[in-house]
Design a protein that fits this description.
alpha+beta, Transferase(Phosphotransferase), domain 1, 2 domains, globular
Length: 350
């Protein structure tokens, strides 16, 4: 069993640690609070990985990539300590479950919500690719469903697209999560491009609407063989018929047969709008269906995000002894509404 920190650290870089958020293959993630009460997710690297120069380089590349990418659908970079022991990385704290956890606990998404989710994730991938970066590990576990929609996290396996000859792993080694890897990624080809992330997005959307993997059954070598065999097609049983044609293109065996991220985005938007609802309405419904705040982590009062000027605290009346203040008188503004209607009737461009 891999060793983790036996006790949560009290301080990492400039952040006070107030709770544990989870653990992954590279380390543990904690909730940290900055001196100005901003909350971040702090990844602290496992001690047994520190002597691995390959890992050190990969971790440094993750930091570089996070500094480069941006956008509403990508977790924001906050800071890092590459030379600290152990090294750490801080990103925007996103309250909410992963897509994988949501499907496991609450079930699959309908076609309209899945299409909106996919369009927003395509937005995120577009920003990532514009920055010259390939994610290489898009999957339900790396998508957080926050209070303003989904966000892509974890660039630990990302690769710089602008330098295709650069790699931090040896040829023949799998990089990514097998169930969501493209055939060329399974074959450990080095000249990967954006179509690899399109495949992973297709596999992720298929999971969101079916709750199953594309290649059910044994994992490991057996699954790798099935993914890399052009004769064996991914299993889309149970996927909404409206979504199957696009998923089939995204999951094409040959990278050149897959649509680009922009095409995927536009088709998913069109599919979502086919429900007759507006995009803002579908977004609100997606958030309502997927956002589930985790149990709160108790933050010491001195680190809490202030809601009012603390200097005024001593001037506040005690509700137990002070009578409530009278409510302000209501003002009739119906006349203003009448004037606006009249003005609009005169000039429709008003």
């Amino acid at each position: 069993m891999e060793a983790l920190l036996t006790e949560d650290p009290q301080q990492v870089g400039p952040y006070k640690i107030v709770g544990r958020l989870g653990a992954g293959g590279m380390g543990q993630v904690f909730l940290g609070v900055s001196p100005t009460a901003d909350r971040v997710a702090v990844k602290v690297i496992k001690s047994q990985l520190l002597d691995d120069t390959d890992f050190r380089e990969r971790f440094a590349l993750e930091v570089v990539n996070l500094k480069t990418v941006y956008g509403a659908r990508v977790a924001r970079f906050e800071g890092a300590g590459l030379d600290d022991e152990p090294p750490w990385l801080a990103v925007e704290y996103i309250e909410g479950p992963t897509l994988k956890r949501h499907v496991e606990r609450s079930g699959t998404l309908d076609v309209t919500l899945a299409a909106m989710l996919g369009a927003q994730l395509a937005d995120g991938l577009g920003k990532i690719h514009e920055a010259g970066v390939l994610h290489r590990d898009l999957k339900p576990q790396n998508i957080l469903l926050g209070k303003d929609g989904p966000k892509v996290i974890d660039f630990g396996l990302a690769k710089v697209l602008l330098d295709p000859d650069h790699q931090v792993t040896e040829p023949g080694h799998w990089i990514g999560t097998l169930a969501y890897m493209s055939p060329e990624q399974v074959r450990a080809e080095n000249d990967l491009d954006a179509s690899t992330d399109v495949y992973a997005l297709g596999a992720t959307l298929a999971y969101a609407v079916t709750g199953r993997l594309l290649y059910p059954g044994p994992g490991g070598i057996v699954m790798a063989h099935r993914i890399s065999d052009p004769v064996i097609q991914p299993d889309l049983t149970g996927a909404p018929p409206e979504l199957v044609p696009l998923l089939g293109l995204m999951l094409a065996h040959e990278p050149t047969a897959r649509p680009g991220v922009k095409v995927v985005h536009d088709q998913l938007i069109a599919l979502a709008k086919a429900s007759g609802q507006s995009v803002p309405a579908i977004r609100r419904r997606l958030i309502k269906a997927t956002f589930d705040a985790p149990p709160p982590i108790v933050v010491p009062p001195e680190l809490s995000d202030p809601r009012a000027d603390p200097e005024d605290a001593g001037d506040r009346p005690d509700p137990a002894t002070e009578p409530p203040k009278p409510k302000p008188a209501e003002v009739d503004v119906s006349w203003l509404a009448d004037e606006l209607r009249t003005a609009y009737a005169r000039d429709a461009a008003f």
